[in-house]
Specification:
It is a single chain. The protein is α/β, with parallel strands linked by helices and 434 residues long. It folds into three domains: 3-49, Transferase, Pyrimidine Nucleoside Phosphorylase, Chain C (Transferase, Pyrimidine Nucleoside Phosphorylase, Chain A, domain 3, Up-down Bundle); 79-324, 3-Layer(aba) Sandwich (Pyrimidine Nucleoside Phosphorylase, Chain A, domain 2); 332-419, Aldehyde Oxidoreductase, domain 3. The chain is built from 17 helices and 13 strands. A four-stranded mixed β-sheet has the order 1-4-5-13, sandwiched between helices. Strands 6-9-11-7 form a four-stranded antiparallel β-sheet, with helices on both faces. Helix 5 crosses helix 14 (304-315). The chain is globular, with a radius of gyration of 22 Å. The structure holds uracil.
Amino acid sequence: MLMVDIIRKKRDGQRLTKEEIDFFINGYVKGNIPDYQVSALMMAIYFKGMDDEETADLTKAMLYSGEKLDLSAIKGFKVDKHSTGGVGDKTSLVLTPMVASLGVPVAKMSGRGLGHTGGTIDKLESFKGFSTSITNEQFIHNVNTIGISIMGQTKDLAPADKLLYALRDVTATVDNMSLIASSIMSKKLAAGADGIVLDVKSGSGAFMKTDEDATLLAKKMVDIGKRANVRTMAVISDMDQPLGRAVGNSMEVKEAIKTLSGEGPDDLRELCLTLGSYMVWFAGKAGSCEEARSLLEEQLSNGKALEKFADFIEAQGGSREEVYNTDTLPKASKSRILTADKDCYVSSIMSEDVGVASLLLGGGRRSKEDVIDLSVGIYLHKKVGEKCAKGDKVATLYGNDETKMDEAFKRISQAYDFSDDPVSKNKLIKGIVE
Ligand code: URA
């Protein structure tokens, strides 16, 4: 088999066989096929697309390019969750202890933030001493004893995706549905769960800018999961404004703790309850999604979800006292407030600009090696549809460096748009794909 024939075939709009897909993935991982040929193939796929069977075959080839995590030592039905990424998205921090508190085993691999979106591991490192660099044995032990553990993604998980993603990033071939779906699902399936709940974001701050595209991506991922005999569903959720009100690592942790205590912003709580209901139902801990939801609401109001979070932080080196008293979490030394200069309504908040403002404050990474400032961030006092009186606080920036704050302030000011007339609130849950 020759790589040039595979490129030509896709360039001419034909479908690739499983053997051809296996050939190029294996050859690329072994270093037998050069970057320039794989780049050409990625561009051909970008323009000509892949059907569902090709997408499933590509996922499988990437999944088996490395080790599949063996979670068989964990008792019970394991459900994983994945978000396609957004600004202020601290869902995992709330969702995982919430479902674990009902006996659903949570064995999750998470990542760090890059660019304008944050990462769960960075946020968790706001707790002194907390670490996700644990061995597979420790990971499994923690899930079996306290019901929850989160670790960083191992190097051996879907290595083909790591190589391909880096290549797509520099050849303008990231935003293709089949390539995104296979990239995400290869890692999720390699992580070994019995069920997968996906949060596909739609809007200005997401990969998918429209609900139609987000639904199409969700359908592709759900199809891949089902073909692999893993129970899979997706929620399409709003990313036309940040989720919750806090953006920035330790600030997001505080908001997650509030939500776990039964308070917190409505949108974050609602999204966690929606995703969590499916996780609990899939795991057989409730007879229906509705029953699962009321069980979860109970765990938020009776303190059990928060207690599970404290167990988890403690088991991975942090202090449970910091969960109950967040005053010692990293805190910025300076603040600056954006106020409304007239009576008005918030008509839009560009999520990406808010994410970039947090990055400019030092809360995000421009490259993988950057060290981030966990204390900085932005608090959104006003969200879309909310009324502002002249002089009201719209957003507060928290930072440690005046020059960085100047730049971030400009970005936050441009993120907001206002209207003299009332504006309806954004719809949070835009669809469910099962
Ligand atoms: N996230 C991934 O893991 N892969 C993609 O291709 C896009 C987003």
